[in-house]
Amino acid sequence: MLPLASIRACASSCVRARFRSLASSASSSAPLAESEPLTHFRITLRRSAIALPKNIKGTLAALGIHRRLQTVYHRHSPDIAGKILAVKELVSVQNVPASAVRTKLEQRLERKAPRGYVVMGSKLQAEP
After folding, report:
1. Which residues are paired to 45 by β-bridges?
2. Alpha-carbon distances, residue 44 vs 8, 69, 115, 121 (angstroms)
3. What pTM was computed for the model?
């Protein structure tokens, strides 16, 4: 049987290697320019807070999140980072540059379908 210290060392080295591979794949797949600094958090509520304590619900309200799959943007700051850590099991967080920040209206317009319709083809005007 292996000593406990060697098991811990092996586990921590495996975790470090996995973290490095995730970090390198995330940086290589980033479509944004490298020169633009990441200045904002993009926070999306993934899990519902229905049966959770009031302090967790209050933290979500302080972040500006009120419903599931809602996305908000906040500048990088220690108080926002602490709030994110308090609800880390419920949200997904991404670092984005200032150019990727969207207001509520911009997010709504991105989801909205274009008005009207487009005729793709007509059997009446098709030549035999």
Report:
1. 91
2. 34, 6, 28, 40
3. 0.64
Residue 38 three-state SS:
strand
d(CA 60, CA 88): 11
Q: Encoding tokens for residue 101?
A: 């920040």
- As a whole number of angstroms, the distance between CA 18 and CA 34 comes to 23
Report yes or no: 70 and 45 within 8 Å, Cβ to Cβ: yes
- Residue that the structure tokens 């921590």 belong to: 12
| Interval 46-90: pLDDT, tens | 999 999 999 999 999 999 999 999 999 999 999 999 999 999 999
Concatenating the DSSP letter of every residue in 60-119 gives HHHHT--STT-EEEEE--HHHHHHHHHTTTTEEEEEEEGGG---HHHHHHHHSPPSS---
The CA–CA distances, whole Å, from 124 to 116, 117, 118, 119 equal: 21, 18, 16, 12
